[in-house]
Amino acid sequence: KYNAYKNTPEEQEFASKIRDKLCELLEEENLKLWD
Questions:
Q1: Residues 21-24: contacts with CB within 8 Å, 24+ apart?
Q2: Can you tell me the distance from the alpha carbon of 28 to that of 31, in angstroms, rounded to the nearest whole number?
Q3: Diameter of the chain measured on Cα atoms
Q4: CA atoms of 20 and 14, how far apart (whole Å)
Q5: C-alpha to C-alpha distance for 32 and 18, rounded to whole angstroms
Q6: Which stretch of DSSP H or E encloses residue 25?
Q7: Does pTM surpass 0.70?
């Protein structure tokens, strides 16, 4: 069974990069909405 708390450093780094990218995309979408 997959345990999220046993992520390797590589997995954690990958996940944080994805979160950063998603935040960027969401901010861009929000800016378009408010334009």
A1: none
A2: 5
A3: 45
A4: 10
A5: 21
A6: helix 9-34
A7: no
CB 7 within 8 A of CB 15: yes
pLDDT digits (tens, 9 = 90+) for 6-24: 778 999 999 999 999 999 9
Residue listed under structure tokens 């390797």: 8
Question: Would you state the structure tokens that stand for residue 31, as one six-digit string?
Answer: 């800016």
Q: Distance between CA atoms of 30 and 24, rounded to whole angstroms? A: 10
CA distances from 11 to 19, 26, 31, 34 (A): 12, 22, 30, 34
